[in-house]
Amino acid sequence: MGRIQLIDTTIRDGNQSLWGATGIRNAMAIQAASLINDVGFYALDYVTSTALGVAVRYHKENPWDRIRLFHEAAPDLKLGFLASPLRFISWEKVSDSVMQLAFEQLVKNGVSRFQVIDPMNDMDGLLGVAKLAKAAGAQEIVAGFTYTHSPFHNDAFYADCAKQIANSELIDRFYLKDPGGLLAPEKTGSLVTAVRHELGSRPLELHSHCSLGLAPLAYLEAAKAGIDALHVAVGPLGSGTSQPRTETMVTNLRALGFEVDIDDAALSAMSRYFYDLAEAEGLPVGQAIDFDAFALEHQVPGGMLSTMTRQLTEINQQHRLPEVLEEVARVRRELGYPIMVTPFSQVVGAQAVMNVLSGGRYENVPDEVIRFALGKFGAPAFPIDENIKDRILSRSRARELDKEPQMLEVPELRKKFGNIPDEELVLRAVMPGQLVDEALASGPTQTTYNPASRPLLKLIEELSKRDDLSRVAFEKEDFKIELTRSQPN
User: Fold this and answer.
1) Is residue 434 part of a domain?
2) Which of 48, 125, 456, 481 is most buried by a 10 A CB count?
3) Does one domain contain both 360 and 461?
4) Within a domain: residue 326?
């Protein structure tokens, strides 16, 4: 039946899908490097600008160390970065010179593989980013086709996307990216075949999510149709709204007669590490999700659905969630069927919530919806409803946003921030200065993490907050530790 390569997404998309991108800190990732190195993955979908921003904003950590120290611990692993022409960390579109500088820092620190997507499937925009990545020193560029379904998105649409870039010398591999987990098993074979027809023998990968319970079966159908590689996540970071779980996928592929060059013992050790991490940190384990036919209409990603539910609950409007989801489907149709992936899922979702809660449709319009209608995110694949577009752009705020200043270029940023390292310059260009200050002042990055020690460290942390304790002792079998509070001068 042939050989199937596996791309590991555990630290990047598994963490982002199931643990809100905040669950894995630098030390946790670096500690896992040697374990992951032994498994036999073709490459890692390791980092995106979201992960870099989270490291700074929530963990006060140096995000470049997350890449550099992992690469030093496992230098033979291909580390991947997910790139988009729309943004780098911030929600505002950055200049090409800033994107180029960011890519150069990624390569310098150990990223060799760039997965390049455009949420609107603008192949010209995608090739523009690929060109920047290649100039920065990328060894492998993987061009993505972002999947959805609508009256316009079908096999022919994606075959045409493939045809537009099939002969580009910038691209080494291609992949179908299904962020909503919408690809049904019965449609997978024809889609892979249609795209493969345009690509010939060039490698094709599939990346999907288990949000509707379809991905595990779609993966097996893709393998039968000739896919070269599948994106998977290990242990507790697989399934749920993440990718199919590696352990199960390996078993099923082999049962169908495919070769999967994975070291089972190493995979088991890697899986055990992340299960232990999840238990120590109180993080959820991915669970199978029942199929929801309505989700095929609104297409709200799993993580966003959880956030939307929480926000409605906070204002005692949780009972209106079905109404909001119906409005999401309607708004998406009116805005030209944007693919429900960041940032467009947030654009559509925010407008739908406002339409429902305000009592009048498009009475309140968020800035990001106005920017979308202005074309700030690129040209929609299909036209926006003219009446809706007129309502959005007739607002005075639309005229203000249309005149927004462009993102500064690198020479202007150097003048603004002075003589600072390029890694720091990239962060200051797209993030609040105070957050960058805190991250860079946090000291050397920890490179070790032991899940077994976490409960004790948590207990010590809590006890240290008590003013009525001057001495604490812990003793168990041949282990003993004693802590004494120093007396004030």
Assistant:
1) no
2) 48
3) no
4) yes
